[in-house]
Each structure stands twice: as C-alpha cells, then as structure tokens.
Design a protein that fits this description.
This protein is α/β, with parallel strands linked by helices and 188 residues long. 39% of the residues lie in helices and 13% in strands. The chain contains six helices and six strands, in the order ααββαβαββαβα. A four-stranded mixed beta sheet has the order 3-5-4-6, sandwiched between helices. Strand 4 and strand 5 form a beta hairpin. Helix 1 packs across helix 2 and helix 2 crosses helix 4. The longest helix is centred in the N-terminal third of the chain and has 22 residues.
C-alpha cells in the first residue's frame, strides 16, 4: 500500500488503489498464463530477504521473477528488461504492464506472431501511451528522451521507430487504469 497505483491512490485512497492493483495483477497474470508464452516477472522492488528468486511469486505461479534495476526512468527499466531477455537468447521479447484490464491471451499471442515479420509491435493505450511493446532486438533509442506517463509516449515512440526504419505492427487500442476517471470507465 502506498507504493502501487499512486496516481489512482491520489483520487481514491491508497487502500482502494491497492485493491484495484491486486485485481489488475490477477487479470494480467491470467492473460499471461493462458497465452502460454514464456514470461519473466520484473518486480519494482526486492521481496522479503528470505524469498528465493527461483520460486514463483504467489501472484505469478510457475513464472520466474527478477528485480528491476534502480533507475529513475521507466524507459531505463524497460530497456534493461529487454536487454536481459535478448542476452539470454530470446529472439522476440514483449513487455507489458499490469494496468490494462482488457489485455487478453490472444493479444499476447498476436504480439509474438507480429514479431515474426515486424521489428516492433506496440499496443496503444487510449491515453496516448502503450500497454505493450515488443521487439526483435534491443532498440535503445525507443527508450530515450520520452516524457513517460504522458500522451506523447506513443507518438514519440512511433516517430523514433520511423526514424530508425523499423517495421511496426500495431495491436488494438486498449484502456488502462491510471486515475479514478479510468477506473470509472472500466467499471462502467
């Protein structure tokens, strides 16, 4: 409590935001598990010192987890996760967040399929960001010079992709939950 969904917590309080976070986490875990795609869970902070990295987190049964490196910017953390996955031999890597209740297993499968013929796949969010980003190789420029958590993230990312000559596939636009307004739209 107090460390997740902080923008939402400013609107509805930290306890209610934690419950929404848990629900979104469950929906995301279910989509990933049902899609049957290889996955690693990246945690924002280290769990209790007695936790074993080889053991799955209760929210993500059967999936390995890692701790994100300390970095101020979301882009730095995402670039690191992509780099780690490619360094272990992955040929197609997709990153998702946990705030998109409409994420379905078919969308994850579609993302991986699109990476067979495209360099980049993006799942646009209604707010101008994205809920999913997939690559066939690390493209550091996609993570630099972004005003994260704003409506310019997706257009800036697509502009960078065009400048780099990347073949881009776009998935359906989905709604994410960052504010009380977003929550009301989802619940409605």
């Amino acid at each position: 409590m107090g460390r997740v969904k902080t923008r939402l917590a400013a609107d509805i309080g930290p306890e209610a935001a934690l419950e929404v976070y848990r629900e979104l986490l469950y929906l995301t875990a279910a989509a990933v598990t049902t899609a049957e795609v290889p996955a690693t869970v990246w945690l924002a902070e280290a769990p209790h010192p007695t936790a074993d990295a080889a053991q799955p987190r209760p929210e993500w049964p059967g999936l390995p987890w890692r701790v994100q490196p300390p970095a101020d910017l979301l882009g730095e953390r995402m670039a690191h996760a992509f780099g780690e996955a490619f360094a272990t031999g992955a040929g197609r890597v997709v990153i998702i967040g946990t705030d998109c209740p409409g994420l379905q297993p078919a969308i994850l499968q579609q993302a991986f399929a699109a990476l067979e013929t495209h360099d980049l796949v993006v799942g646009p969010a209604e707010d101008g960001g994205y809920y999913l980003l997939g690559l066939r190789e690390l493209q550091p420029a996609l993570f630099a010079n972004k005003d994260w958590s704003t409506a310019t993230v997706l257009p800036d990312t697509l502009a960078d992709a065009a400048r780099l000559g990347l073949r881009v596939a776009q998935l359906p636009v989905l709604h994410d939950v960052d504010s009380a307004r977003d929550l009301a739209a989802w619940r409605g």
